[in-house]
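Protocol step 4 of 6: structure prediction from sequence.
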Amino acid sequence: MPAPGYSPDLGAFSLAKLKEQLRTARLLPSQQILCEHLDERFACLEQNGIENLAQLQKALKNKAAVAAFAKTTGLPVEYLTVLRREVNGYQPKPVDLKEFPGVNLDVVRKLQEIGVANTEQLFPYVLTPASRAELVRRHQLEEQALLELTKLTDVARLKWVGPKFARLLLEAGYDTVEKIAASSGEDLYRALVRANETSRVYQGKFGLDDMKLWVTTVVQETPRVIQY
């Protein structure tokens, strides 16, 4: 389980909220099945005791559970498999600190020596300026390098953000979840495009509508707990 505050509390994320997000989402072709018979299928989930994403994640915890739930509810295995992937996406996998482009590898090495190798492991140590200062003092870390890793950890907690996109967010000036949440999707998009024209750090695709939807849905669900 993720450290408390690292990702959204799925127990507080209602099934009704997910349904409304899917209703307005721009989905990939492989995700379109999520919007088929949306009301009917979510009513079926509710009838089978699912009220929030934590319960849904537990019910679909692995392939065997998906197959069993499909048999119980009559919902298609393919649909439940894609739904499982969508729910799990709200708790992104931790990013190895060494995978972030441009980070201070000496600091990464020192953190690895104390058992801190990824963003989820670093998260509890960097929640406040005082906790970061203590980490710097105890392990002779470069202060600005640790702050950079803190900000990369912060934004990498967001759904769909990998190490290269996290770096692009920092280069665009959107270096915390709080700043991203307060942005307009349009301003964020323009800043990302400008930053990527210079750095070319990110080779993936993102669009204006994607950024608008991301800010108003995914980003708003992520706890803003790291203090600067």
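Step 5 (inspection) to follow. DSSP finds 13 helices and no strands in the chain.
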